[in-house]
Every structure is written in C-alpha cells, then in structure tokens.
Amino acid sequence: MTQVIDSIGYLIKQHKAAILEPLERQVLPVYSKLLNPKNPPTVQHNAICVYDDMIEHCSPNCHRHLSTCGGFLIMNMAHDVVYMRCAVRPSFFWTIR
C-alpha cells in the first residue's frame, strides 16, 4: 500500500490543485473510510498521508475536506503510536497556517 500512497502523493505534489477533482472522485471516497479509528494505525496512517499532501499542496482549494479529516487529526495528536503523532502534526500545521 505504501507504493500506492507514494504515487498519489507524487501526483498531488506535481499537479497541485489541478489533481483535486480526480482525487475527490476516485481516491477520497476510499481513503476517508480508512480514517476510521477502528482501523489499525498503519491503515489510518496511509489515509493521513494522502490528506496531508492534499492539505499541503492543494490549499485553499481542499479546505472543504477538513470536515472529514480535521477532527481525526486533532484526535490523534496524542496517539500512543509515535508514527501516528508524527503523521498528523504536519497536517495540523498546514491547516492552521
């Protein structure tokens, strides 16, 4: 799954907001479900990476998706798993910036 996440991240970084419409149609319906706290942290982490890249490289056009991921980001800033805390903090920084 890491290769898929990396590929999506490269597309976001390369095309910025121009890739947002295809992401919304094809990727976000699946990845928004991966944010479910009942999923293992590794699965949640993959979804965070997509939202993080989107927030960083497609803002402000992607701010409408903060309702999907914003609460999740805040909730996991104190997660027991270190890589979860590390994943959500940059997203939160980009959101408040």
Order of helices and strands: HHHHH
In the residues, how many domains can be counted?
1
For the sheet with most strands, the description reads: none
Average pLDDT number: 89
From the structure provided, what is the oligomeric state, counting identical versus distinct chains? single chain
Q: Approximately what portion of the residues adopt beta-strand conformation? A: under 5%
Supply the number of helical segments: 5
Q: How is the secondary structure organized here?
A:
Layout: H1 2-15, H2 20-34, H3 41-58, H4 66-75, H5 82-96
Provide a short characterization of the protein structure:
It is globular, with a radius of gyration of 12 Å.
Keywords:
0% strand, 5 helices, 97 residues, globular, single chain, mainly alpha
Question: Overview of this structure, please?
Answer:
The structure is a single chain. The protein is an all-alpha fold and 97 residues long. It has one domain. The chain contains five helices and no strands. Helix 1 packs parallel to helix 3 and helix 3 (41-58) runs parallel beside helix 5. The longest helix is centred in the middle third of the chain and has 18 residues, at 41-58. It is globular.
